[in-house]
Write a structure and sequence with these properties.
The protein is of the alpha/beta class. It contains 13 helices and 15 strands. About 35% of the residues lie in helices and about 15% in strands. The chain has a seven-stranded mixed beta sheet with strand order 4-10-9-8-7-5-6, with helices on both faces. Strands 1-2-3-13 form a four-stranded mixed beta sheet. The structure holds pyridoxal-5'-phosphate.
């Protein structure tokens, strides 16, 4: 029996079936954009642990920072005895997030926890209960964030009742416009619709926050048009509503900029980050306007593991790599390469209905026919499986599971990228022969 098969049997015996797997791979080592399976096979990684290793697997600078910090102290709890890496990282994030106003940052452990805290802060600051999220949103798996999440299967099915005072409005999904309109003649009506939403769904004066991802990650890399966020923000400001931008998946250079929202040129009230922030260690951050962040009383925010010092040191190293080692510029160039590859594939493969995203955070949406846009969910599953068999790790997303997304480490070499695309192309050819 192979080691892989042996561990699959042990996994099935000891771990519940709930946690799912995009591939059956068991990994013994990972470096840069390559993972090595326990039986020695090399895999090109286009998934990056779901957008967590933007600086690459086991980046030497991140590993060194982790080792150095672990040898000094691993945990004191920020609520018991403070430490410098927490404050240093907060100061860095306050400086780097969009806007030069006074900001403050609190740290937590997971993306969901960051979103929970952002909502707590917005509710406290406004003394209002309601939160508006979008169709196709994904904000996590805790009760509140699962409620904010849109897709029912597998995230919500059977896990209710859900948290109260969460409302959902249509999103800016241009490929499948919920209003049946076309950009730009639509004049981005999906953003203006927020005003109407207050009439039929929840009052503006009862709404604490609107929460949105710049590019919807799990929801299918849905990428709003350029005017979208400025419009949404103007309406939020008019009504004293906190605009929370959830950058858990999109930040840390994923789109070629440190924060994806920079592409839309707005300054959010609160930004949540996690995933690639600490290069693979669990860490998340809530960064927002100081007067908002300071509203909750002493003891109202926090957690035992929040802002763990080893994770903070890893995050400081990640930022150094992204900004100091020119990885953002590399990300930009990588994005152009991937976009060109996807555009060329779309011309050849009828099954690719849409190419979208920003920088190297790109996706292809697979459809059975381009006219009706029938989602090709089963074909996408088959494609992911075929790619794995040929040595490429890919992950799907979208409400219909018919979107292939790129979240590869930004340090991927041109040769690895070419190898990955050659596999993708061969797999596409098998599921849906080119014209
Ligand atoms: C935009 C967004 N928000 C929140 C989360 C939840 O993060 P975590 O899984 O770390 O709780 C995710 C995870 O995919 C995400 O993509």
């Amino acid at each position: 029996m192979s080691r892989q098969a042996e561990y699959q049997a042990l996994r099935d015996r000891h771990v519940p079936k709930g946690p799912s797997h995009a591939t059956p791979a068991f990994i013994k080592e990972a470096h840069g954009a390559v993972m090595i399976e326990v039986d020695g096979r090399e895999l090109i990684d286009f998934a990056g642990g779901i957008g967590v290793v933007n600086v690459g697997h086991s980046h030497p600078k991140v590993v060194a920072a982790i080792q150095d910090q672990a040898a000094k102290y691993i945990h004191t709890c920020f609520h018991v005895a403070m430490y410098e890496p927490y404050v240093d990282l907060a100061a860095k994030l306050n400086e780097l997030t969009p806007g030069d106003h006074h900001k403050k940052t609190m740290l937590a452990s997971s993306g969901a926890e960051a979103v929970e805290n952002a909502v707590k802060i917005a509710r406290y600051a406004t003394n209002r209960p309601a939160v508006i999220a979008l169709d196709n949103a994904f904000h996590g798996r805790t009760l509140l964030t699962m409620t904010l999440t849109s897709k029912v299967k597998p995230y919500k099915l059977g896990f209710g009742p859900f948290a109260p005072e969460v409302y959902r409005m249509p999103n800016a999904y241009c490929y499948r416009c919920p209003f049946g309109l076309k950009y730009p003649s639509c004049d981005v009506a999906c953003a203006d619709y927020l005003e109407e939403f207050f009439i039929g769904n929840v009052a503006a004066e009862q709404t604490a926050a609107v929460i949105a991802e710049p590019i919807q990650g799990e929801g299918g890399f849905v990428t709003p048009p350029p005017e979208y966020f400025a419009k949404l923000q103007a309406i939020c400001r008019k009504h004293g509503i906190v605009l929370v931008i959830d950058e858990v998946q999109t930040a840390m250079g994923r789109t070629g900029k440190l924060y994806a929202i920079e592409h839309w040129g707005i300054t959010p009230d609160i930004i949540t980050t996690a995933k690639s922030l600490a290069g693979g260690l669990p860490l998340s951050a809530v960064t927002g306007r100081a007067e908002l962040m300071d509203k909750p009383h002493v003891g109202g925010l926090g957690g035992t593991f929040g802002g763990n010092p080893v994770a903070c040191r890893a995050a400081l190293a990640v930022l150094e790599v992204l900004l100091g080692d020119g990885l953002l510029a590399r990300a930009e160039a990588l994005g152009q390469k991937i976009r060109a590859r996807f555009d060329a594939l779309q011309k050849r493969f009828e099954i690719i209905g849409d190419v979208r995203g920003k920088g190297p955070m790109l996706a292809i949406e697979l459809v059975r026919d381009r006219e009706k846009k029938t989602p090709a969910g089963e074909e996408t599953k088959k494609l992911v499986k075929l790619c794995y068999e040929k040595g490429l790790v890919l992950i799907a997303c979208g409400n219909y599971g018919n979107v292939i997304r790129t979240l590869m480490p930004l340090v991927i070499t041109d040769e690895q990228l070419d190898r990955g695309f050659a596999i993708l192309e061969a797999a596409l050819q098998e599921i849906s022969p080119a014209r």
